[in-house]
Amino acid sequence: MHHSSKFKIPMGPQHPALKEPESFSIALKGEKIMGVDIRLGYNHRGIEKACEERTFVQDVYLIERVCGICSHSHSTAFVQGVEEIAGLIVPPRAQYIRTLIGELERVHSHLLWLGVAGHEIGFDTLLMYTWRDREIVMDILALLSGNRVNYGMNMIGGVRRNVTEEQAQDILKGVKTLEERTKYYIEVATQETTIIKRLSGVGVLKKDDALRLGAVGPTARASGVEYDVRRNDPYAAYAELDFNVITDTNSDVYGRTIVRVKELLESYKMIRQCLKNLPNGPIAVKAPRKIPAGEAISRYEAPRGEDVHYIKSNGGEKPERVKVRAPTLANIQAVKHMLKDRYLADMPIVVAAIDPCFSCTDRLVSVKGNAGKSKKILTWEALRNYSVEWHQVHGIDFTELSYKFRTKMERF
Amino acid sequence: MRPGKMLREVLKHLFKKPATNMYPAEKLDMPKTYRGKLIFHADKCIGCKLCVRDCPSGAITINKIGEKQFEAVLDLGKCIYCAQCVDSCLKKALEATNDVELAQLDSKKLKVVLGEKSGSSS
Ligand code: SF4
Ligand code: SF4
Question: Which of A43, A172, A237, A260 could form a disulfide with A99 if both were Cys (CB 3.0 to 4.6 A apart)?
Fold first, then answer.
């Protein structure tokens, strides 16, 4: 074996270390990563196209299912866009409730991430305790919306459920416990030697690289980029809330951990403000079934970063085009950069540190011919033949096997 | 910096009761707001089918079974439990319950005629 040559190993699309199917092709020299090639597209669900086939009312639920973790982020981004096209003025109470759910969602998402990060570095104790505490916020969400995931809170023109005084008290109680626990986790993260040693200097992304590669959310903020849609382009009730945009200068996985745990404290602050200043009044305005022609771009600071939706209506009941840009797509290029010259063992945690959500990211892939410019859309049959040929060229041939299989099946 | 920061926490929990519930022996209380299996008040329904039109997953169908009489059939496997149909119905003929135990071994049994009560009324 000669150590000077590069060795390519494929990781995924199905791999025990990955929670979702995506494919990494890693060029290694010894244990060192020389370069990574990332291929998405194993989770394409055709959601955007499906949106065009359904009415705006139905799309809210479909869009909510782009992601199970940041479902409220996607549905809010979508309804905000539709409301902008239709010129609807959403009542302030609805705006506050949206913000409230949005922040509760961030809390559950960041706690989830903290657990996953602990798991990826073999610190499963952290996983167990953070996930136990996450149950508190899941219960709050269930109390408010009825369900633990896919809350179904948004409708075009407002929200579907009100917050009662009694519920507000329960939320405050839960948030108090959560805040104590989060302070404890901050202590753990800043004092526990194993965490600091394992995460410092891993997955470095310098500030100018973060800007150049278009990183968003906690990934960018941990590299010192002070950018948060909630502050820079406020939506819902954020303009009226008092909060800090958390940044960090560590620029590594450790910095990303610190940003997320500190953001939790900001979220608690915002939840309290939302409940305290909750305006009275209606929670929704009536929306027309037919949305007037027009287009809108809507931005939302999801737990993983900026989420962008584009909606175009032609005046009918169904949108003409819906485009979703999930935060992971913006962050994935940075991962490539972070992994360079690191060891293979750092890969799971570096990937996990952007809090990826690959199925939210997957959109239509158009296959480019070798000629370069010409794009063509392949039919299912053509795509299948293409794949069969590709594998044959690369020495994998199933023709005989599938022939045997077919003749066996025919005998039955 | 100190290693074993969480050790005390872990030891403390050796003497506490488990955080998990012993389901199904111990049932959880679903919140009142939960959107579970639907119930149908046939006397209120006027057969306008607004619910069918707004259902995102095509899970509900309204059949005419007689003069001004309708039945609602729900596919429990298709329903995403969003309760949009409940919101869409102007006559309040549909209602969400907090019935969650809807699993079936036979997929045919997932198609149910909705009754006034949840549970085994299917
Ligand atoms: S919307 Fe209500 S009244 Fe109309 S068909 Fe459905 S259940 Fe009946
Ligand atoms: S709850 Fe939602 S998915 Fe189920 S029948 Fe009603 S509208 Fe359809």
Answer: A237
